[in-house]
Specification:
Helices cover about 80% and strands about 0% of the residues. It is mainly alpha-helical. It starts with a helix and ends with a helix.
């Protein structure tokens, strides 16, 4: 796999699952709907930055998230892409 194809073609099933889950949470939880909607949009932004191969932008975006959604997205990226990606690109150790 080339560097370019890594960013474009790597499947992100765990990241996609959290996007779907948070959309559902927003629909199901009236009092927290706005919070879950914001997190959902933040996760979609992370995928967009990933697909654009914007490693610096992705790392900054993830770093600026609130604690809980940051942990969720880092764990999902870890499940999808592994320890090295999370450490080298996102700057987190799991």
């Amino acid at each position: 796999m080339t560097a370019t194809s890594f960013w474009i073609e790597s499947p992100l099933p765990n990241v996609e699952d959290i996007i779907a889950n948070y959309a559902g949470f927003a629909d199901e939880t009236e009092d927290l709907s706005e919070l879950y909607t914001t997190d959902h949009e933040d996760f979609k932004t992370a995928v967009r930055l990933f697909r654009e191969a914007d490693a610096e932008g992705l790392a900054e975006h993830v770093s600026n998230l609130d604690t809980e959604p940051r942990e969720v997205i880092v764990i999902a990226f870890h499940a999808d892409l592994g320890t090295d990606f999370v450490r080298e690109i996102l700057g987190y150790e799991l």
